[in-house]
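Example 3.
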Amino acid sequence: MSESDPSEHPDRNCEAHERPNPDQVLVERALRGDDAAWQAIVDRYAGLAFATARRCGLDRPSAEDVAQSVFASLVKSLATLRDSGSLAGWIVTTSRRAAWRVARQAQQARQARDLLASAPVEEPLADPAEEIAAFERRSQVREALSMIDERCRALLQALFGGTGDPDYAAIGTRFGIAVNSVGPIRNRCLQRLLEALEKVGFRPRRGADFDAR
Amino acid sequence: MARNDDTSSPHPAQPISPEAILRVITGKATPEEAQSLRELAARDPAVAHSVAVLRDVRGAIESLLAEAADPPPASLLERAAALAAQLPRPPSWFDRVRATALVRIDGLAADLAGGPALAPALRGGSVSSMCSFADETARIDVSAMRSADGSFTLRIQFDTHAEGSLAGDFAVLDSESGEVLAAGVTSDDGAASVGIGGGAPRPTLVDVAVRWNDQTVVAGRIPLE
């Protein structure tokens, strides 16, 4: 299988390199006491900390406690993170460690059955580096989706998400378009999304396999 | 992206649309269509790139929808946001614009870029440097003692011509970022001692500000190297 090489797309690379590292900017501002910068860090990474703890098998209350402890550590560690390329790695690693600690304590106390949700702690987790890369891709896709109109967003989410066929009749009704117009509109929306992805410097994993996970 | 109408691509146009790739990625294509796309992607990097982009977009959107179905609790966002109260903040009294900048007066003033030479200290393997700053009314002397672990102890001596207590607020700030590294109150004779951690990254230039009798003076860009 042929692999795509980012160097084959110099324009895309150039655009990506020109984007300032938002994490470093936010950390610098937070270190100067900028509340808005801290709020932006929370908005960007609270979901990641919580989702990471959930993927480790914790129930929602325990995952919330873990995520809260991660941010309590983060506010004390900002100065040491000033030069790090991304906060995502620190968030994932710290969340996992904290989640594993909680899960282990729960198991030792024979409360695992009540505490753990359906996903067992032993479930293989993604490699941390891949998890961080996936988070970055999600952020870029979210940003690209925000750059297109709501109708396109809904069409594409219906197209990409879920395993069954999208309910285009419902989508057509919702947005007041004929069902037979959904296809051409969806096609244009797809092109808009791809253009938006190029603008935000989206780069896929290497390899052209078809498995999304 | 592989497009039928893309004439700007360095790769030859391919008879395949993003929709066709999506049909394969989402499992809606026939095995023959999937095999055909695999062969095409193996031959053409542009098609391979399109497959990779659309595959990862699908994965990302699935994850986004899953996270939207299990969002972080609002209480987490509120509690995490409230931690902003623990961010380092400049002391309320410090206004760099209104502060008086003292002039460096020690013998190394001609070599400001290099800073004072670090001479080996007599004890503990530490090294130290000393800088003096003054104007007509106030003077600040700062000595920096570096420990083996890379941390610094700053000894600050504030003085004026006025009589009475020299107790006042002081702050040590990173000259580059403005971050407050330490703050406190000088003694009645104008002295203070404060530790600057050795953790990385460590500031290389610091400012020392002292407020006394509603006036603020700053000794700027003291090297910690």
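The domain at 100-223 of chain B is CATH 2.60.40.10 (Immunoglobulin-like). Chain B touches chain A through 59 residues (CB under 8 Å).
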